[in-house]
Amino acid sequence: MLLVMPKPSAATDKKSDKELVPVKQQPIVFPPQGYQPTPLNALLANALDLTAPASAVLLKNRKNAWVQLAGHPGSFAPASGSTIWKRQPGREVSESRVYKSLVFESVSQVMPRLYREVEYNGNIFIEIEDLLQHFHEPNIMDIKMGTRTFLESEVSNPKLRSDLFDKLMKVDSSLATDQEKQQRAVTKLRYMQCREQCSSSALLGFRIEAIRLAGQPPNNDLKNVCTRSQVMDTLQLFVNGKKIVCERLITRLIEIRTKFEASKYFKHHELIGSSLLVLCDHNDCAGVWMIDFAKTQLIPDLTLSHRDTWRPGNHEDGYLTGLDNLIDVVGELLRRHTTDHVTSSSSSSSSSSCLSSRHCSTTPSSHV
Ligand code: I3P
Hints:
This protein is an alpha+beta fold.
């Protein structure tokens, strides 16, 4: 789920930056002194199943976000001026294990940096790089990867959940069978597969989970963005019709694919519920990172293609199918932009305003 705070005014932004960006070595106060929960805080806390882009946007409104989020069992909290804390489910450290295992592989260059694990109030957090710091009021998109979005353990999980039935009815009430309507509950497997079918996960191996255009409220009502053309329309909005941004995204996506394919680790690990975080700003800086590895797990004795069709037991997740299709879709978008209103001079000047290649893709790709 994506949660984004309203964009602060320029004045507020400046003031809060000044007041709240802590000195690097300053101890992290969590929650801040004098914090009192309010009904609004409680509401926000309940919506704290955050993705990295959302939490990073919250950092832009550091003062409000800090006061509203801290003290509750949220998934994210601002840490230093350039890092965020992400709460780990239970006391698991599986996500940091992924980061640590990949540190000597080149694919780590397309992931946020891991700084440390932190224990606070009985919860385990990982402190990771805040990717938004490299952009100026960017458009933000979270793309969930894979044709399969649930763990194989769900296949044998008979538990009926009424909360997922309610969510299913919101996605598409015509999907529920008579029996499901009677019991007003579905298994997680059933819900997750319906979500895949109603979105582009089943067809393309990725789905746009949430998008936030600079200066606008977030949109996470994308559960029915399903067809290739619907996906393309959403991507078109995201890149704001800019050819140079499409070029940079493709370059970066191809880099991610190359590094992923070269990774020994991913040959034996399935990636479930993992996302790509996509950012671009008005300087035409654009970047993509692999995020969310809480459900990345070792599959011993199998070599995964990440492209083969899933059958229970083969653990294929369709991650690379999704990446292939995403590259293809952005490529088609690029070809549509034959009359790009962004001139080459503006693109070259924006290149110079971009950050290091780790953060912003600047070299257009010649092959898609
Ligand atoms: C949720 C989404 C989450 C999933 C969650 C689903 O559906 O698929 O990824 O958590 O399962 O309810 P939606 O996007 O429609 O809100 P996991 O990735 O942890 O499985 P949950 O309800 O069991 O937390």
